[in-house]
Amino acid sequence: MNEKILIVDDEQDIADLLEIYLKNDGFCVYKFYTGLEAMHCIEETPLDLAILDVMLPDIDGFALCAKIRQQYFYPVIMLTARVGDTDKIAGLTIGADDYITKPFNPLEVIARVRTQLRRYIHYNTQAQVLSGSSPSQEPDELDIRGLVINRGMHTCTLFGESISLTPIEFSILWHLCLHQGKVVSSEALFEAVWGEKFLDNNNTVMAHIGRLREKLHEPPRKPRFIKTVWGVGYKVE
Questions:
Q1: What are the structural domains, with CATH classification, of the chain?
Q2: Contacts of residue 189, Cβ cutoff 8 Å, sequence gap at least 6
Q3: Percent of the chain predicted with pLDDT > 90
């Protein structure tokens, strides 16, 4: 295993507990109690996943997540003591992949880490397959009225402008474009992209769709590409 996991939490008991569980599971752990220390690690160390507390004494977890997303695509899991949806939507909007509310069961965190790493490793493996060498019947590139998305190269352009997408954003857009003209429910989209069972009141898909629309410069009331079919799901026309 030996994947490199970053933990950032100013509550030392929580950070230490997560470190013990992750190391016992075979992970290599980089643990910090402040955002500034973690920032140096992010810049200098090749990581596979980050677990970030939202509330830190110096640089908050959102800023760290935004820093990661400027250069890297590895999964980010946010931790917070708040139970409302505000932090969750904010974190997902800036590129976080998952969100866990304190207090939590450490075994749940380990399970979430494994799930995110499986998705990330699977995605990278698929992305390294060059055009023509994959046995999949899916095309490697889709072009929808100037929106061009290439699965093999993990690139997305809109009328020639390069659009930077996180792995989850890319997977959502690819799935919708692949099913162009068909309505994809939030449940089906979540299960296809995250590989997990969809739970009621899960705003994860909605938050990522909102972020995708921003990146694609979609007009809020009349989106050109990703359209909402109220009460059903989303579709790309």
A1: 4-127 (3.40.50.2300), 141-236 (1.10.10.10)
A2: 172, 175, 176, 205, 233, 234
A3: 27
